[in-house]
TrEMBL record:
Protein name, per record: Aminotransferase class I/II-fold pyridoxal phosphate-dependent enzyme
Keywords of this entry: Aminotransferase, Pyridoxal phosphate, Transferase
GO molecular function, one term: transaminase activity
CDD domains: AAT_like (cd00609)
Organism: Apilactobacillus waqarii
One Pfam family matching this protein: Aminotran_1_2
Length: 388
C-alpha cells in the first residue's frame, strides 16, 4: 500500500466502487456462464456507420474539434430529436456531445450540485447517479418506487422535496435501467407540474428512448423545457457502446457551464467517431426500431420463461431488462442469490440492490443476447429454482 494513501482527497470517502462492475467482475470467471448481466446490445454497429468512420479516417479527421462537437454532429443531433420527439434545440448553443452519457452525468452534477445539495433519485436506478452525487458532496435522496410499479409519482416527489428542502434536482430515467419501465406522457406532465412549482432542475436520461414498446417515447422537456437537461446517445439505439457518444440538450446558459467543465475534462470527443455518430443520426433513424423488433420477441420469451418458474417481474415497457422478484424461499439477499445463480446454474444476472436500496430482493436480467442463450438460461434458472 502506498504511504500516501492517507493523503487521498477526502471526497473519495463518499465514493464506493461501482457495484454493477464489481459484481460482474466477481462472476466473470465462472466456466460456461451465460451472461445476462450487461446492458449492451449484442448487435454490431450498422455497416453504414462503420463506413462513415472509415471515410472520416481516410479524410484525415484526426484533430481536436469544437468542444461541443463537430458541426455535422451537432446539426444531426438536434434534427434527430426534433424529428423523433418534437423537441427543438439550437445546435450551437443548446447542445453538447460528451463521452457517453456517463460523462454527461458527471459533468451535469459538477455544474449544478454544491456540497449539501439534494438530488432526488427514483430507485432502483443506474448506479453512477448515486456515486456521482456523493463525489460532489451532494445528498442522493433515494425515493423507493417499488410499491408504485417502479414509477415516481407526483405525490412521492413532492413529499421528498418537502422533507428535503435542500433539493436542487431530480432525475427521471425513461425507459428505466434497471426495471425497463417507461413513463407515459400524462405521468410526465404531472411530475413536471411539481418540478415547475419548486424551481428545481430535472435531469431526463432518455438513453433508451428508441426502445419503447408499449407507447411512443415522450420527454418531460416537452412540459418544462427551461428546467430540463436531456440526455440521449447512440449506445443503445445504434449498438455503439464502444464509440462513447453522449448527447446533451438544455438551456443555453446551463449547457455553457457544462461545456466549460467538459473542456477541462476531455477537451473534445474523438474526431472520426463524431462523424460516425453524425451518420447514425442522419441516416440511421430506422436502426433502433429494427433492433427493437428483436428485443420485443426476446422480452416475451424471457418473461414467459421466468413466469413459468414462478418468478414475478415488472412489465418492462422499454429498454432491454427484466427486473424480477427473487422467489420467497431464497430470502431477499440478492447478492447471495445472484452469486449462487452464477456458480450453480451458470447464469449471470445483476443483484437488485446494486441499483439502490429499493432493489433489495430483486435481480436484473438483460435480454440483449441471443434467443439460444435466453432459452438455455431459462432452462437453467427453472432447474435451479426447482432444485432448491
Amino acid at each position: 500500500m502506498s504511504k500516501l494513501i492517507n493523503k487521498i482527497s477526502k471526497r473519495m470517502e463518499n465514493v464506493k466502487p461501482d457495484a454493477i462492475l464489481s459484481f460482474g467482475a466477481s462472476i466473470a470467471d465462472v466456466d460456461g456462464l451465460i451472461p445476462l448481466t450487461i446492458g449492451e446490445p449484442d448487435f454490431n454497429t450498422p455497416d453504414h456507420i462503420k463506413e462513415a468512420a472509415i471515410q472520416a479516417i481516410n479524410d484525415n479527421q484526426s484533430h481536436y474539434t469544437d468542444s461541443r462537437g463537430v458541426v455535422e454532429l451537432r446539426e444531426a443531433a438536434v434534427k434527430f430529436l426534433a424529428d423523433k420527439y418534437d423537441l427543438h434545440y439550437d445546435a450551437d448553443e443548446e447542445f453538447l456531445a460528451t463521452v457517453g452519457v456517463t460523462e454527461a452525468v458527471f459533468l451535469t452534477f459538477a455544474a449544478i450540485l454544491d456540497p449539501g445539495d439534494g438530488i432526488i433519485i427514483p430507485s432502483p436506478a443506474f448506479s453512477p447517479y448515486f456515486n456521482s452525487a456523493a463525489f460532489f458532496g451532494a445528498n442522493p435522496i433515494e425515493v423507493d418506487t417499488s410499491k408504485d410499479g417502479f414509477i415516481l409519482t407526483p405525490y412521492r416527489l413532492e413529499e421528498a422535496i418537502k422533507q428535503h428542502p435542500e433539493t436542487k434536482a431530480v432525475i427521471i430515467n425513461t425507459p428505466n435501467n434497471p426495471t425497463g419501465v417507461s413513463y407515459t406522457s400524462e405521468q410526465l406532465k404531472k411530475l413536471a407540474e411539481v418540478i415547475e412549482k419548486y424551481d428545481i432542475f430535472c435531469i431526463s436520461d432518455e438513453i433508451y428512448s428508441e426502445l419503447n414498446y408499449e407507447h411512443e417515447h415522450e420527454s418531460i422537456a416537452k412540459f418544462i423545457r427551461d428546467q430540463t437537461i436531456v440526455y440521449n446517445g447512440l449506445s443503445k439505439s445504434h449498438a455503439m457502446t464502444g464509440w462513447r457518444i453522449g448527447l446533451v440538450y438544455g438551456p443555453a446558459d446551463i449547457i455553457n457551464v457544462i461545456k466549460s467543465i467538459h473542456e477541462y475534462n476531455v477537451s473534445s470527443l474523438t474526431d472520426n467517431a463524431q462523424f460516425a455518430a453524425a451518420e447514425a443520426l442522419k441516416n440511421g433513424q430506422n436502426d433502433g426500431p429494427e433492433m427493437k423488433k428483436v428485443y420485443e420477441k426476446r422480452r416475451a420469451l424471457l418473461r414467459q420463461g421466468l413466469a413459468e418458474s414462478g418468478i414475478e417481474s415488472a412489465n418492462p415497457s422499454g429498454a432491454f431488462y427484466i427486473f424480477a422478484k427473487i422467489p420467497d424461499k431464497f430470502g431477499d439477499d440478492d447478492f447471495a442469490f445472484c452469486t449462487r445463480l452464477a456458480k450453480e446454474a451458470k447464469v449471470g444476472t445483476m443483484p437488485g440492490s446494486a441499483f439502490g436500496k429499493s432493489g433489495k430482493g430483486y435481480f436484473r436480467l438483460s435480454y440483449a443476447t441471443s434467443e439460444d442463450n435466453l432459452n438455455e438460461a431459462i432452462k437453467r434458472i427453472a432447474k435451479f429454482v426447482e432444485d432448491n
